[in-house]
Amino acid sequence: MGVHDAPQWLLSAFQRSVQGAGATATTEQIRDVGQSLVDRWTEPGRDFHNLKHLVDVLVRVDELVEETHEPDLVRLAAWYHGAIFDSAERKAYANRGGEDEIASARLAVDELTSLGVPERSAQRVHDLVVALVRHSPDPADFDCAVLCDADLAVLAAEPQRYKAYLHDVRAEYAHLPVEHYVRARLKILDKLLGRPSLFSSPLGAAWEEPARQNISAEKQRLEKELAKLDAAALAAADADAAALEASDDAAAQAAVRAATQGS
Asked: Which residues form a coiled coil (predicted)?
């Protein structure tokens, strides 16, 4: 599926979830909001955090749906979790990968309440989205666990798909220098590997081993790449120092010659 190719079922699925959450708005009003979300997910610069990612998360939620208490709210949180996105800042990638969950959560409350979704339900969607900032759900909060697991499920993808995921993420941050990107990515991988578990739901636990294998392999590759970058930087620094020293020597010799000739 291309970035701009929305599946035919997508807006209907959004409509069902909004209505399931208690909306009182008309079908047309709901679909208009859904289309505006699709437009957000297809904005330029979204090489990974795009419509395909949204669809993948929705599909993963449905794979885990039997563990949820309020599935429509979980689906709506998936719709909104990356609605507002900006990869422009280096710190954005190092911290949250460009997704602005806080702003996205506020957007969810504003739009859902405008559609007549009860405030409690809209606030619950807000809280689910905000929980993705840390990806550390309360074990007793099954809805939050399912959403977090669905969002991280790509980490457990089979090798070729994981490779494509890495390509898309790098393309999304092509404006970052290679060294900055590698260091930021390694920081993220270390945080992931340092967690007792990546997935919190019982069904999502099946993704734990393949995800850790993918992350560990990527970390090993990036550490080798960083070592090469550091070695190249050191060699360049040594070359610059040698060139400066040679220049200083030449200047000193010229000064001596000038002094000798003057005398």
From this structure: 212-239
